[in-house]
DNA sequence: AAGAGGCCCTGATAGC
DNA sequence: TGCTATCAGGGCCTCT
């Protein structure tokens, strides 16, 4: 599921629901994720109070009151579910991948608060959890990551300079977290469409004006996606609660063979595999 | 050093 | 109904 906008929505929802609460019980049902859940995870966080939930890139950062905490990456299929016991198992959906009905399989972690239970579910186990002891350790974790699109460091000059002599195509760079943090396959496609740049264009061949468009539209697209509550694809007929709606305004993603939505353009959306990821683009107006 | 490709995993869906 | 193949929103690791 999760690119920056979806993770941001989960973060906001967690801040509303569990900020200030004390962790009463921790149950790890299955430690096997991309990396093993650390053995001391339970002991590290038990009885501590949630100070706040932050986000960097596609990572959820749970900060406890002593500045220790843990990081959750949702991978491709990770979801977080909150159950409010006071409302008799009424489930708040903090996910976009599943229906709000609580999944039975692949519940890896349960964290219990006084009246609320948090469940981390991840069928494909591409997500993971790691712990940190203090701010310094946390910062170290993200040291090698590129700036987020919203950061002032991410500007046309940065992009243009970065791309000098780079032979890789622009699509791969948008997915490269060392270049820019938080963009995934859906939004890379959408950003390139509105920027009118074809995904296969070599980075070094981008003009300064191209770079300005990348800079500008990355912010626009991600901001809009956050406003829409993220994108919910696959199995969203049964969902309620925090359902995203950006998928309703996809211009290219999953629109293979459909008409280009740029007014006046007679193009058709094509699908092409680039580095094992699906790319969607208009065959006429993206050059 | 940069870039290409394999791989980690389960589940949904399409086609036979 | 049941097989097989293909494809998923990510990113780490290895090889050239």
How would you characterize this protein structure?
This protein is α+β, with helices and mostly antiparallel strands and 287 residues long. 25% of the residues lie in helices and 21% in strands. The chain is built from 7 helices and 11 strands. It has helices at 4-18, 41-45, 135-141, 156-163, 170-175, 185-195, 208-227, and strands at 25-28, 50-56, 59-64, 69-73, 79-84, 90-93, 107-112, 116-121, 128-132, 269-274, 277-282. The chain has a 5-stranded antiparallel beta sheet with strand order 1-7-8-5-6. The chain is globular. The two termini are 29 Å apart. Residues 95-99 and 235-241 have low confidence and may be disordered.
Task: Give descriptors for this structure.
single chain; 287 residues; alpha+beta; five-stranded antiparallel beta sheet; four-stranded antiparallel beta sheet; 7 helices; 11 strands; globular; DNA-binding
The total beta strand count reads 11
Query: In what range is the share of β-strand residues?
Result: 15-25%
Kindly report the spatial arrangement of strands forming the biggest sheet.
1-7-8-5-6
Report the C-alpha radius of gyration, rounded: 20 Å
Shape: globular
Low-confidence stretches: 95-99, 235-241
What integer is the average pLDDT?
A: 91
Task: Give the helix/strand class.
Answer: alpha+beta
Helix content: 25-40%
Task: Report how far the terminal alpha carbons are from each other.
Answer: 29 Å
Number of distinct helices: 7
Q: What letter string, H or E per element, gives the SSE order?
A: HEHEEEEEEEEHHHHHEE
The major sheet is characterized as: 5 strands, antiparallel
């Amino acid at each position: 599921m999760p690119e920056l906008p979806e993770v941001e929505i989960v973060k906001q929802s967690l801040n509303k629901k569990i900020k200030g609460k004390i962790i009463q019980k921790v149950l790890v049902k299955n430690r096997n994720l991309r990396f093993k859940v650390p053995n001391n995870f339970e002991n590290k966080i038990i009885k501590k109070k949630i100070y706040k939930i932050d986000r960097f890139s596609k990572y959820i950062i749970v900060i406890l009151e002593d500045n220790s905490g843990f990081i959750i990456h949702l991978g491709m299929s990770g979801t977080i579910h909150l159950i409010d016991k006071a409302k008799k198992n009424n489930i708040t959906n903090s996910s976009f991948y599943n229906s709000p009905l609580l999944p039975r399989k692949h519940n890896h972690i349960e964290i219990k608060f006084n009246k609320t239970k948090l469940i981390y579910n991840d069928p494909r186990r591409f997500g993971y959890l790691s712990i940190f002891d203090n701010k310094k350790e946390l910062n170290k974790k993200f040291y090698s990551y590129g700036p987020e699109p919203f950061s002032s460091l991410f500007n046309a000059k940065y992009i243009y300079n970065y791309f000098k002599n780079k032979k890789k195509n622009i699509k791969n760079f948008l997915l490269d977290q060392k270049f820019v943090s938080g963009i995934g396959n859906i939004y890379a496609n959408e950003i390139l469409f509105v920027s009118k740049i074809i995904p296969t264009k070599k980075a070094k061949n981008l003009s300064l004006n191209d770079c300005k468009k990348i800079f500008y539209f990355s912010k626009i697209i991600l901001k809009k996606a956050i406003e829409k509550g993220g994108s919910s694809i696959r199995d969203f007929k049964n969902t309620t609660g925090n359902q995203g709606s950006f998928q309703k305004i996809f211009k290219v993603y999953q629109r293979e063979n459909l008409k280009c939505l740029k007014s006046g353009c007679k193009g058709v959306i094509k699908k092409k595999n680039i580095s094992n990821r699906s790319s969607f683009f208009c065959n006429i107006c993206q050059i």
